[in-house]
């Protein structure tokens, strides 16, 4: 079986008429762990949402393919069926649907033509073992999906879904936020356990700490809605020691970002001095 490949070519996208992605180029293959870093508001989470088909975002140009198939023309469920997975930065609560029911139906939905469904007992044993591996509460399977979960429980639950669904390419959007050191180690071990030629991973973060547990093969820096620099783990180490100013100077850009004010939800622009300027959208 050929290694899975996610290719992103010159991807441009907007939200509420404001361009966020300005031309992203990236390729993630099975057997590879990629990390995208960068200051807040540079388009990292937008990239994950656009790849998975969030309806809020409008694609303005470029292409995304998964194993040669055009992703941008697929519905969200079709993208998941094709082997893509997103561990969300802010997972939604779904009252009335238990974790076990959600995962059981999700696994069924991802069956390829001719594949036989897993028996119920085998599914339960796998789910219980995976919950134990992640050091989650044993009653997690019977709780409603993310309802009343702490931030850390929601993030671990996203990793539980990844381990159970076994995607070909996983995008982890700030999976480290809300996790203490012990939980971060457990999540890191879980992701590392999936390393193989059949699995590729893109980690989106602005903290180095998650990359202490999940060593990336490639590190990318995103600014102004595009990837401006790529390298190996030494790039991450230099960023940790020196910050991002040297990259901005090297590529000749100012620190101009589009961010969202938490209190109003309205996009604002930071000028080169860090002053907020509300955008009239």
- The arrangement of helices and strands along the chain is EEEHEEHEEHHEHEHEEEHHEEE
Helix/strand/pairing category = alpha/beta
Query: Fraction of residues in helices?
Result: 25-40%
CATH class: Alpha Beta
Instruction: Please report the number of helical segments.
Output: 8
Strand % is 25-35%
General shape = globular
Radius of gyration: 19 Å
Low-confidence stretches: 259-281
CATH architecture, please?
Answer: 3-Layer(aba) Sandwich
Largest sheet: 6 strands, mixed
Task: Calculate the terminal CA-CA distance, rounded to whole Å.
Answer: 47 Å
Say how many strands there are. 15
Give the CATH H-level superfamily.
P-loop containing nucleotide triphosphate hydrolases
Brief overview, please?
This protein is an alpha/beta fold. The protein has helices at residues 44-52, 76-81, 99-109, 120-133, 151-165, 181-193, 233-242, 245-251, and strands at 5-15, 18-29, 33-37, 57-66, 69-70, 84-87, 94-98, 144-145, 169-173, 200-204, 218-223, 226-231, 257-260, 267-270, 276-278.
Walkthrough of the structure:
By secondary structure, this protein is of the alpha/beta class. It has a single domain, classed as P-loop containing nucleotide triphosphate hydrolases (Rossmann fold), CATH 3.40.50.300. It has a 6-stranded mixed beta sheet with strand order 6-9-10-3-11-12, with helices on both faces. A hairpin with a 6-residue loop joins β13 and β14. α5 packs parallel to α6. The longest helix has 15 residues. The C terminus is likely disordered.
């Amino acid at each position: 079986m050929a290694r899975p490949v996610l290719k992103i070519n010159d991807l441009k996208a907007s939200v509420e008429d404001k361009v966020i992605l300005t031309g992203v180029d990236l390729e993630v293959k099975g057997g590879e762990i990629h990390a995208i870093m960068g200051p807040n508001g540079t388009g990292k989470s937008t990239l994950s949402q656009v790849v998975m088909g969030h309806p809020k975002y409008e694609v303005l140009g470029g292409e995304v393919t998964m194993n040669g198939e055009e992703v941008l023309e697929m519905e969200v469920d079709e993208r998941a069926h094709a082997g893509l997975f997103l561990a969300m930065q802010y997972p939604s609560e779904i009252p009335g649907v238990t974790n076990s029911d959600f995962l059981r139906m999700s696994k069924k939905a991802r069956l390829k033509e001719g594949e036989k469904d897993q028996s119920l007992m085998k599914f339960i044993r796998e789910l219980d073992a995976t919950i134990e591996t992640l050091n989650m509460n044993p009653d997690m399977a019977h709780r409603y999906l993310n309802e009343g979960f702490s931030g850390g429980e929601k993030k671990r639950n996203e990793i539980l879904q990844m381990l159970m669904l076994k995607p070909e390419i996983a995008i982890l959007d700030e999976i480290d936020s809300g996790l203490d050191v012990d939980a971060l180690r457990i999540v890191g071990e879980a992701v590392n356990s999936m390393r193989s030629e059949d699995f590729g991973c893109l980690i989106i973060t602005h903290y180095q700490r998650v990359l202490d547990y999940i060593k990336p093969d490639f590190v990318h820096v995103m600014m102004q809605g595009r990837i401006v620099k790529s390298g190996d783990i030494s790039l991450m180490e230099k960023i940790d020691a020196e910050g991002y100013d040297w990259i901005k100077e090297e590529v000749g850009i100012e620190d101009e970002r589009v961010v969202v004010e938490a209190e109003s939800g309205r996009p604002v622009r930071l000028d080169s001095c860090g002053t907020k300027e509300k955008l009239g959208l």
